[in-house]
Design a protein that fits this description.
homodimer; alpha/beta; Rossmann fold; 6-stranded mixed sheet; about 45% helix; DNA-binding
DNA sequence: TTGTATGCGTTATCAA
DNA sequence: TTGATAACGCATACAA
């Protein structure tokens, strides 16, 4: 059973009125008689009318979809952000087109191009760990496509961003460990090209300094976030003569890999070495010992970023860019 | 710096040829001189031409996006499926619009309507646990919108589906437990409205029967997949005089909640009670003891579903529906 | 308050 | 091999 889509024309024909009248009625414009409006509404419902969004977009030069680019959809942090975005977008009649960069700059460029071709109204992006140039993003401005960074941002870019205060959160996490009595606190960092990593490292260093703590440059290691590298870092720590008694990891994934590898080496946690993470993913509650971590409001982050982007879409070039800094909270569990 | 989009017209004007010629050149149609084709291609690249997909879709009545509806984006199983879909879609020049039903039928209906309004070329869907009617899906056929089920399917629907053999996988999982020497094997099921739950239950029952095992109806419980309910089910098992010595759970989430609650009650796993799950999520490797589970090829499932949908989009009403049954594998770990 | 006419950027049909 | 022109479905300026 074939059935063509019902159009404004069909409704107009049936009611013997003009297409423009139908359009006005359905767009809820003021210049229309209440009676005809009701009539049109009724007919539209009866005939199962669905507006053709392509025609609408073609005409108005604005679409009802926004694009998202995340490094890895399977990481809970990002799927939770997306979940938040999805909610606000749906509430506002927008759709989400989702892309993954797989941590590759090349792929990220391609994603942006695809979204651009799809004429999205705006873009939400969290950078890949390879992203060291921003031309593919900044050219969006020339095309009048607003975009908002979240979590992994271009610090020097003039765009709106939604972040946590990485430096401060990391400072507080480190301070928490210091107050717990740990003396040799290591920092297992991620790719320093990412602002979140760079800033968390700074927060860690500032905390140590302001509490006049021991410090060894060997305690600062950089993992590429893979399990192998993290394990290798742990092995390195264990081989040190001045072994750390606590490890602050760049995120929960790395922290959990730490715990697993430490346990494999029969290190007791937290008695011999404590471990702390970043993000408060569901896995943090599952690993044993349960992971002490800095909670990042991922769902909220997604919502905030989406809300802001929608505003920028609605007020083109009227809005100065803005940085939203969300609060974090230390969740104390058994790994410290 | 404002910049309007470059259109076919702009290229035509610059080269002093007709719009239709430009269109033909860029569409790689045969009826065109090689020379002009090259000329147009060059100009298009130089002028940074991006086709307007809205106009294209409006004209051709087909869009390059497909929709996905999942119950919960934050569950790793689903985000992994989506990751697979994303890959094949991207390779084929399609975009993904993603919706969450949040396990609500009402929301699922709304999602379908939204996707329909967006004129997606097709839909990939895994049902909510509330979905007991399929009118909102079957009406898609009248609108010529193909859709493919994955994982949580309508068994009686005549659509293509991508599934695992739930009955057989569950039979084998149960048999595995039997061969391990467990005598009192319980089955902690999910909402039986879902075919996956119903069929896994059948597989479990068949396995017990064909091995002439003990069986108590009290051993079959139904969780709504929430942590509280699962804990309550465990409490119920522990209160039984004929206590189970192994629990086969409907999925990893439930299995992990089982383990956590059993440990809270100082039950040793697997010595006193063994636990087994379904899915092989990352958390299965993190929980202690590591969870024995049935691996479901989620990424592959997403790819297979997407590939099939694309075929159905390309050959409207030419294809008979097809069921893809993917293989599972028991991953033996320490919880059994 | 309503109708007429035009154009958004494509593709497709027909002549040339 | 190319060009002129008509649609696709909608919104909107303008006329009535």
């Amino acid at each position: 059973m074939k059935r063509e889509h019902v159009t404004l024309k069909d409704i107009a024909k049936k009611l013997n009125i003009a297409v423009s009248t139908v359009s006005r009625a359905l767009s809820d414009l003021p210049t229309i008689k209440d009676e005809t409006k009701k009539m049109v509404m009724l007919a539209a419902k009866e005939m199962d009318y669905h507006p053709n969004l392509f025609a609408k977009s073609l005409k108005t030069k604005s679409s009802n979809t926004i694009g998202v680019v995340v490094p890895d959809l399977e990481l809970h942090f990002f799927s939770s952000c997306i979940s938040g975005m999805q909610k606000t977008c749906l509430e506002n009649g927008y759709n989400l087109i989702i892309c993954q960069s797989n941590e590759s700059l090349e792929q990220e460029k391609f994603n942006i191009k695809t979204l651009q071709d799809s004429r999205v109204g705006g873009i939400l992006i969290s950078l890949s760990r390879e992203t060291n140039s921003f031309e593919h993003l900044n050219q969006l401005k020339e095309h009048q496509i607003p975009f908002v960074y979240f979590d992994r941002v271009d610090e020097n870019g003039s765009n709106s961003k939604v972040v946590i205060n990485d430096e401060e959160s990391s400072f507080e996490a480190t301070q928490y460990l210091i107050r717990k009595g740990y003396k040799n606190i290591a920092f297992l960092c991620g790719p320093k090209i990412l602002s979140i990593c760079k800033n968390r490292l700074i927060g860690y260093q500032n905390a140590l300094r302001s509490h006049q703590m021991n410090f060894e440059s060997d305690w600062i290691l950089e993992s590429d976030l893979s399990r192998q590298t993290t394990s290798a870092c742990i092995d390195f720590y264990l081989g040190l003569k001045n072994q750390p008694d606590a490890i602050l990891a760049i995120n929960d994934t790395v922290a959990i890999d730490c715990i697993r590898h430490l346990k494999k080496n029969n290190i007791e946690i937290p008695r011999q070495i404590a471990v702390m993470g970043f993000s408060n993913s569901p896995a943090a509650e599952i690993i044993e010992p349960n992971l002490t971590t800095v909670e990042q409001p991922s769902f909220d982050m997604g919502q905030t970023a989406a809300k802001r982007l929608l505003e920028e879409i609605r007020h083109p070039d009227a809005l100065p860019s803005k940085v939203f800094t969300l609060n974090t909270k230390i969740i104390e569990r058994d790994s410290t």
